[in-house]
Design a protein that fits this description.
The structure holds 2 protein chains of 2 kinds. Chain A is of the alpha/beta class. Chain A contains 6 helices and 11 strands. Chain A folds into 2 domains: about 200 residues, Rossmann fold (3-Layer(aba) Sandwich); about 30 residues, no CATH class. Classes of the chains: A alpha/beta, B alpha+beta.
């Protein structure tokens, strides 16, 4: 069984981002990066499938610049068997382009499962799983929160407004993961050492597929307005507060 | 405004670590963030070492870090080892001490002085965390002067009879095996492996500590402990052998101090920017800024020293006085930084909701153990003057 996991290198979510002064992108100088957290759930799920059935191969695929090897190594350190970097020279911000590159590679690989994060936390679009499903002609289950492996196949859970959906799944299939009920494993130090020895194929993408969107510019979010302290004794402070809520912020 | 990750990389030090070293460090950083930091204040107050984490620590690979793969270790280099110690002590000096002692004192002694049979018997189990080790050198009357130790080993046929007391032994009560040093009738030093539960061998945990509370510190008592010669470490070369492991552990301490210092600095910096007094953040006062800059400068220097020492060690060029200079410097600055951070935190700083006072209390031990500040001064002093002050 061939299980592919897509992984993306994203800025560490714990670090505030700054827009470059010319508004052409994010200031990436010295920014720490992590594996996209949703992709970690997908990786964990892939490893669990392999462990449960006692056979198969988990392949971590990333479409990105050379630095994405680091992210592939994280998945390898968790336990994936090998990695593939679909290498581009500049970061791709267009989901159709990413899906085209992934599908060009994956269609000749005969995957049984493709596990993905529901979105990458950098651009937050969440479109690649759907585009990829369309391009490969594979069914897609989105925002999966749990996965159990039964003798007959896979049982997936999705949390909806109406309760938990329980779905029986068979390959070939694309599954995109929400924050799941299971925890992704910590890569061990030994895993990090082993990751160094596992193969990572680098496929240079020389002809970029056409893009469907262009980001014109980035606007930093407006700065939060300073709070106001009403420095009056009771009950004047309450009266003042009510007045401000009515007249200034107009919320009551 | 500079973010912490930018401050940590003030002199671009990140470029001087390999990709693998950084990945190993980040792995331990995540572990500490998830498994240690949320609970450490409580463990510390209760005076408990988190024994339940031992299997997870073993799984992570914290035991046998530098040990060759042949015995189940990871065979990592000194800089990786150092970075791991730094991250552990970012959590707590007691957690780092647990790993330091198990790795650099207990496993290192068996690996360096043990027979092949002893290595095969103990090391793989120690890597798995099934056996935890401690190291008994210090005694109630022999601290800085271990040469004067009173523990006796009397040869009786193929057996040895051990009598004596070891003091301030990290992991002493929870350990399954102890490396214990003793003098024979000819005043030769020998190291022995004592297994927990053998007749005449017992431990008492020291419960009255107000430092290293999340660590087990104990007394080991040997009353007519009779063991076979096969439990003696055969490859020791006299007194020097009992100091060699210390040099390894001291090296790890130098990095550990950088970790506790960063933890204190970060919380003091954040607090100073948020705490409003006299209608402005206390970070705007020159007095506070000077404190922050002094702390920062000392951490940056401490980390650069560690990295340089680590690279020297990689090439087999580090000497014991190199380690002493950094152990002396880094324990001093880490302790000062923890105290200054507590000052900046004001009254909040005296609680375990914050970290600085816990670190400060711990660092009192770090400043003293594995060679006191004074002893390291004399080691470097001897290098400078060629005069041994304690002879």
């Amino acid at each position: 069984m061939k299980i592919f996991v897509t992984v993306k290198r994203v800025p560490d979510t714990g670090v505030p981002l700054r827009v470059k002064s010319d508004r052409t992108g994010i200031d990436r100088e010295g920014l720490p990066y992590v594996i996209n957290p949703y992709d970690e759930y997908a990786t964990e799920a892939a490893l669990r499938i392999k462990e449960k059935i006692g056979d198969g191969e988990v392949i971590a695929v990333s479409c990105g610049t050379e630095d994405s090897i680091e992210t592939i190594r994280h998945a390898l350190a968790m336990g994936a068997d090998r990695g593939v970097l679909l290498k581009v020279n500049d970061e791709i911000t267009d989901s159709v382009q990413t899906a085209d590159i992934l599908s060009d590679y994956l269609k000749s690989e005969n995957p049984d499962f493709i596990l993905m994060g529901k979105k990458a936390v950098d651009y937050d679009r969440g479109l690649v799983p759907a585009y990829l499903s369309e391009k490969l002609g594979f069914p897609l289950e989105t925002c999966v929160t749990n996965m159990e492996i039964k003798d007959s196949g896979f049982v997936l859970e999705r949390e909806t407004e109406y309760g938990v959906e329980i779905i029986e799944a068979r390959s070939p299939l694309i599954i995109s993961f929400e924050k799941a009920k299971f925890e992704p494993r910590f890569p061990s130090l030994r895993g990090v050492m082993m990751a160094k020895k596992k193969p990572v194929d680098v496929n240079e993408i020389s002809n970029l597929p056409a893009n469907s969107t262009n980001i014109l510019s980035y606007e930093p979010p407006p700065e939060r307005k300073k709070g106001k302290i009403i420095d009056l004794p009771f009950p004047d402070n309450v009266k003042e507060l009510v007045k401000l809520l009515k007249e200034e912020s107009k919320i009551i | 405004m500079a973010e912490i990750h930018e401050l940590r990389n003030f002199y671009g030090i990140e470029d001087y670590y390999t990709q693998e070293e950084k990945m190993l460090r980040n792995t331990v950083r995540e572990f500490v963030k998830d498994k240690i930091l949320p609970y450490i204040g409580e463990w510390w107050l209760k005076g408990e070492f988190p024994k339940h984490l031992i299997p997870e620590m073993a799984k992570l690979g914290l035991f046998g870090i530098t040990l060759p793969e042949k015995y189940g270790g990871l065979g990592l280099g000194p800089v990786s080892y150092g970075l791991i110690m730094e991250e552990l002590e970012y959590g707590d000096s007691g957690i780092r001490s647990f790993c330091s002692v198990h790795n650099s004192l207990a496993m290192y002694s068996i690996y360096t002085f043990g027979s092949e049979e002893q290595k095969n018997k103990y090391l793989p189990e120690m890597v798995k965390g099934k056996l935890i080790g401690c190291y008994g050198l210090t005694e109630p009357n022999a601290g800085s002067d271990p040469f004067s130790m009173e523990t006796k080993a009397i040869k009786k046929g193929s057996k040895w009879i051990l009598n004596g007391t070891k003091m301030w032994i990290t992991n002493g009560s929870l350990a399954d095996i102890a490396i214990v040093w003793a003098k024979d009738e000819e005043k030769n030093f020998h190291g022995f492996i004592l297994e927990k539960g053998i007749k005449g061998f017992s431990s008492n945990e020291i419960k009255t500590k107000i430092s290293m509370r999340a660590s087990d510190t104990s007394e080991l008592i040997m009353e007519d402990v009779e063991i076979d010669d096969s439990y003696r470490l055969p490859d020791t070369v006299g007194f020097k052998s009992c100091l060699m492991p210390l040099n390894e552990a001291r090296y790890g301490i130098t990095w550990g101090c950088v970790g506790s210092a960063w933890a204190c600095f970060e919380e003091a910096l954040n607090h100073s920017k948020e705490r409003i007094q006299f209608k402005k953040p206390i970070a705007s006062f020159q007095l506070t800024q000077k404190k922050l800059v002094d702390m920062f400068e000392d951490i940056i220097k401490a980390e650069l020293l560690c990295l340089h020492l680590g690279r020297l060690k990689e090439k087999g060029k580090s000497k014991h006085y190199h380690v002493s200079l950094v152990k002396r410097n880094n324990t001093r600055v880490a302790l000062e930084i923890a105290r200054t951070a507590r000052e900046i935190l004001g009254a909040y700083g005296i609680t375990t909701e914050y970290q600085s006072m816990r670190h400060s209390a711990n660092l009192e031990s770090v400043h003293t153990y594995e060679g006191t500040y004074e002893i390291h001064t004399l080691i470097v002093g001897k290098k400078l003057t060629d005069i041994d002050a304690v002879e």
